[in-house]
TrEMBL record:
SMART domains for the chain: PKS_ER
Domain called Enoyl reductase (ER): residue spans: 14-338
Protein name, UniProt field: Enoyl reductase (ER) domain-containing protein
Domain of life: Eukaryota
Pfam family, one: ADH_zinc_N_2
Length: 344
């Protein structure tokens, strides 16, 4: 076997020009890891922040750094102590939060973060499942969404939003979402009961109010002046895209960094936090946590025909620049798939 592999990697922090197709050493598995021949990866907005260095004070990378935060593929080797999978299993995975390393011919990842891949869809398309679906499910858990609830999901036509709508409907909730005219058919297909065109209508002007909001659209000003006024006193907003709230990065920070970073986060978010607190509204920014068991449950939904992975676009590995350009457009209707090794 060759000692190197092809990978899409960043040569430094920077703009699109630092993303390159490189020949890099094969990874070495640690105890507890699986080695996977990657079929495909999928892009997420966080890829561009990692490349730009937005989070470099929190999670620094050394270069070259292989990009990508989720993938599908076939297990080729098991690290010491792994009994969750067998060689030859098809898996999907949201990578370790500090790692990236999805966009390469081979990767190694802790087995407990992986789940067996859906059997009812192409393995390459399944790369679009892990990150956004687990994020959506965790947000709905934090909101304690249950049958009969009326939920507002902002950013419904994006990767997370389209999963959030479907998963909230599966729980029996009534879902209102925001989308443009271009996004409307997608959110309706996902099951949204009511669609608010965010380009023409303010949530704040809607006659009804919500107690449970999953914000996947963000914008400090939008949270303050549009989302908060649409929430009932005592309601709850779980945001993945608005201003971060203290404690959200604790899971990836060393003990000595926590007070400093949380103070900075509080200072930046204080207008929103104070406005929410005066009306007894909980505002929390959530940083999703990779979780193989939760992912396995969502794979089950896919195979039962209850959850669909909406594919916005598919690119070959050599077309990675086009894939990143599509991501940066901010107009995706679902997931961008970057085919690496292809379907087995
Ligand atoms: N905290 C976490 O753990 C976490 C995890 C995953 C994602 N995120 C964040 O969550 C956000 C959503 O992620 P994603 O993967 O769903 O993004 P995405 O797929 O890139 O979202 C693109 C979609 O958002 C729609 N959109 C843009 N602005 C909007 C607005 N103001 N109101 C309503 N819809 C709007 C666009 O619709 P039109 O083109 O039709 O306008 C487009 O369809 C991103 O900011 C991402 O960084 C955070």
């Amino acid at each position: 076997m060759a000692s190197t592999m092809k990978a899409i990697a960043y040569s430094a922090y920077g703009g699109p020009e630092v993303t390159k197709l490189m020949e890099l050493p094969l990874p070495t598995p640690r105890a507890g890891d699986v080695t996977v021949r990657v079929a495909a990866g999928s892009l997420n907005p966080v890829d561009k922040h990692q490349r730009n260095g937005t989070f470099k004070a929190l999670i620094p990378y050394s270069f070259p750094a292989i990009g990508g935060n989720e993938f599908s593929g076939v297990v080729t080797a098991l690290g010491e102590g792994v009994d969750r999978f067998a060689v030859g299993d098809s898996v999907v995975c949201r990578t370790e939060k500090t790692a990236m390393r999805a966009f390469a011919e081979y990767t190694t990842m802790p087995a407990h973060l992986c789940a067996k891949a859906p059997t009812t869809m192409p393995l390459t398309d399944a790369a679009g499942l892990p990150l956004a679906s687990v994020t959506a499910e965790q947000c709905l858990d934090l909101l304690e969404v249950k049958a009969g609830d009326r939920v507002l999901v902002t950013g419904g036509a994006g990767g997370v939003g389209l999963f959030a709508i479907q998963l909230a409907k599966l729980r029996g909730a009534h879902v209102t979402t925001t989308a443009s005219d271009a996004g409307k058919p997608f959110v309706e297909k996902a099951g949204a009961d009511e669609v608010v065109n965010y380009k023409t209508t303010k949530l704040a002007d809607m006659p009804q109010k919500w107690t449970k909001v999953l914000d996947a659209a963000g914008g400090d000003d939008a949270i303050l002046n549009d989302v908060l006024p649409a929430v009932e006193d005592g309601g709850k907003i779980i945001s993945i895209a608005g201003p971060q709230s203290p404690g959200c990065f604790d899971g990836v920070l060393s003990w000595w960094m926590k007070p400093v970073i949380n103070l900075v986060i509080w200072a930046r978010a204080r207008t929103v936090l104070n406005a929410a607190a005066t009306r007894n509204i909980t505002y929390q920014w959530w940083f999703m946590v990779p979780n193989g068991d939760q992912l396995a449950k969502l794979v089950g939904y896919v195979d039962e025909g209850k959850l669909v992975v909406n594919i916005d676009s598919r690119f070959k590995m050599a077309e990675f620049k086009d894939a990143y350009e599509r991501l940066e457009s901010g107009r995706c209707k679902g997931k961008i798939v970057l085919e690496i090794g292809g379907n087995p």
